[in-house]
Target: 5-methylcytosine-specific restriction endonuclease McrA
Amino acid sequence: MERIGQKIYDSSSWRKLRQAYMASQHGLCERCGYPGDVVHHIEPITADNVNDPFVTFGWDNLELLCHACHNQEHNKIHLPVRDGFSFDKFGNLIETREF
Model:
Protein backbone atom coordinates (compact mmCIF):
# COMPACT_ATOMS: atom_id res chain seq x y z
CA MET A 1 0.00 0.00 0.00
CA GLU A 2 1.35 3.41 -0.99
CA ARG A 3 1.66 6.03 1.77
CA ILE A 4 -0.17 9.32 1.41
CA GLY A 5 1.96 11.73 -0.59
CA GLN A 6 4.31 9.09 -2.01
CA LYS A 7 3.80 10.41 -5.54
CA ILE A 8 4.96 13.82 -4.31
CA TYR A 9 8.12 12.39 -2.72
CA ASP A 10 8.87 10.48 -5.93
CA SER A 11 8.55 13.56 -8.15
CA SER A 12 11.42 15.54 -9.62
CA SER A 13 9.70 18.72 -8.36
CA TRP A 14 10.01 17.46 -4.76
CA ARG A 15 13.63 16.41 -5.24
CA LYS A 16 14.51 19.88 -6.58
CA LEU A 17 12.60 21.64 -3.81
CA ARG A 18 14.21 19.41 -1.17
CA GLN A 19 17.71 20.16 -2.44
CA ALA A 20 17.01 23.91 -2.67
CA TYR A 21 15.57 23.97 0.85
CA MET A 22 18.52 22.02 2.28
CA ALA A 23 20.91 24.48 0.62
CA SER A 24 18.97 27.45 2.01
CA GLN A 25 19.55 26.08 5.53
CA HIS A 26 23.22 25.35 4.80
CA GLY A 27 22.52 21.67 5.44
CA LEU A 28 21.99 22.20 9.18
CA CYS A 29 19.12 20.97 11.33
CA GLU A 30 16.94 23.92 12.25
CA ARG A 31 16.49 22.61 15.80
CA CYS A 32 19.88 21.39 16.99
CA GLY A 33 22.39 22.63 14.41
CA TYR A 34 23.73 19.19 13.49
CA PRO A 35 23.78 18.14 9.82
CA GLY A 36 20.22 17.85 8.54
CA ASP A 37 19.01 15.09 6.28
CA VAL A 38 15.20 15.21 6.38
CA VAL A 39 13.10 17.98 4.85
CA HIS A 40 10.08 17.75 7.13
CA HIS A 41 6.56 19.03 6.45
CA ILE A 42 5.51 21.12 9.46
CA GLU A 43 1.85 20.54 8.61
CA PRO A 44 1.85 16.84 7.76
CA ILE A 45 0.55 15.65 4.41
CA THR A 46 -2.84 14.00 4.89
CA ALA A 47 -5.56 12.64 2.64
CA ASP A 48 -7.38 15.97 3.10
CA ASN A 49 -4.50 18.21 2.00
CA VAL A 50 -2.40 16.06 -0.34
CA ASN A 51 -3.57 18.15 -3.31
CA ASP A 52 -2.84 21.50 -1.63
CA PRO A 53 0.44 22.83 -3.05
CA PHE A 54 0.85 25.20 -0.09
CA VAL A 55 1.12 22.15 2.15
CA THR A 56 2.97 19.75 -0.12
CA PHE A 57 5.36 22.18 -1.86
CA GLY A 58 5.09 25.30 0.31
CA TRP A 59 8.49 26.65 1.38
CA ASP A 60 6.97 27.97 4.62
CA ASN A 61 5.73 24.48 5.48
CA LEU A 62 9.22 22.96 5.39
CA GLU A 63 11.83 22.43 8.08
CA LEU A 64 15.24 20.79 7.75
CA LEU A 65 15.83 18.30 10.54
CA CYS A 66 18.49 15.77 11.43
CA HIS A 67 17.29 12.20 11.74
CA ALA A 68 17.19 12.39 15.57
CA CYS A 69 15.10 15.58 15.66
CA HIS A 70 12.79 14.20 12.98
CA ASN A 71 12.26 11.04 15.04
CA GLN A 72 11.67 13.14 18.14
CA GLU A 73 9.06 15.21 16.27
CA HIS A 74 7.18 12.11 15.19
CA ASN A 75 7.57 10.36 18.54
CA LYS A 76 6.01 13.24 20.43
CA ILE A 77 3.03 13.05 18.11
CA HIS A 78 2.65 9.31 17.66
CA LEU A 79 4.34 7.68 20.63
CA PRO A 80 3.43 9.50 23.83
CA VAL A 81 5.64 8.69 26.77
CA ARG A 82 4.81 8.12 30.38
CA ASP A 83 4.75 11.12 32.76
CA GLY A 84 8.23 11.93 34.01
CA PHE A 85 9.93 10.99 30.75
CA SER A 86 10.61 12.78 27.47
CA PHE A 87 13.03 12.79 24.56
CA ASP A 88 16.21 14.86 24.46
CA LYS A 89 17.27 16.77 21.33
CA PHE A 90 18.92 13.59 20.01
CA GLY A 91 15.74 11.50 20.31
CA ASN A 92 16.92 9.59 23.39
CA LEU A 93 14.43 8.73 26.12
CA ILE A 94 15.30 10.57 29.33
CA GLU A 95 13.79 10.81 32.80
CA THR A 96 12.54 14.33 33.49
CA ARG A 97 10.77 14.14 36.83
CA GLU A 98 12.51 15.61 39.82
CA PHE A 99 13.00 13.61 43.01
